[in-house]
Amino acid sequence: MDPRTRLSISCEVLRKACGIFQEYVLDLYFPAQRLSRWQRVRCAPMLFLVEYLVYRVDAVAEGTKTVDLDTASNKDYDKLVQYKEKFGALLRRTHAHNEVVARELDLGEEYVRLENKVTSHGGASHEQILRLAELRASDVRLLHGMTFALLGKPIDNNLLNLLWPVEVLADIGNDLVHYERDVAAGHFNTYDAFVRLYGCAAPERLRAEIARYGRLFHAELEKFPADRRDELAALCVRRYRARTDLIPEPQLQDNSQAAQHERAP
Fold this sequence. Notes:
Elements: H1 3-33, H2 37-62, H3 75-93, H4 99-121, H5 126-135, H6 138-150, H7 157-177, H8 179-185, H9 190-198, H10 202-221, H11 226-245, H12 256-263
């Protein structure tokens, strides 16, 4: 890879990492935990570094979309496993590792493998599409888990459970916003996968799943004290509501998978 291309990739990785850091760490996780200014300063450098490294790994994964990583001798998969091991070692050395971090590292690997399976084999089931939507936020959940370790705080599982459907909805909303761009670029997109699977019924199918994740969020919200509910609702709903309210018209293709679903009773 020539130096100009390498620089271009690094700049794009930095841009993406900055956006995620702002949207999730600064605008969601820090306020949701009610962290002080000192606590935020304590966590921010390490969280940003890790998000940048995550996107470096993602850049490696992008180059393996058409290669089956399930092949035992595949060197690209070996490289991704090595990155994961280095991540874990780095986080343990910097006291940023706990059970949430360990879990999200494993789920991040599951995401890479499942996305590769779907893209290299050319199709996905309803369950696989939703699993990818649920797994794709593993990088930001990793950052959230790190904050507890870095500050020496006990893990707040109630908060993690509350934010889980919010993270899924935000990811789906992001795919809705970037639907046409992702289709043109050939990137995996949750809505596009629904269109390929269900054809013109895709908006209705996806809208039902959005409503289901919304109900999960509100069920978890009810577990919080009344004085916290309004604060958390305002913080969380704006992460996804505007993005998921409008579902674009599907770009229909001559797809046998969609046709089968449309003919089904």
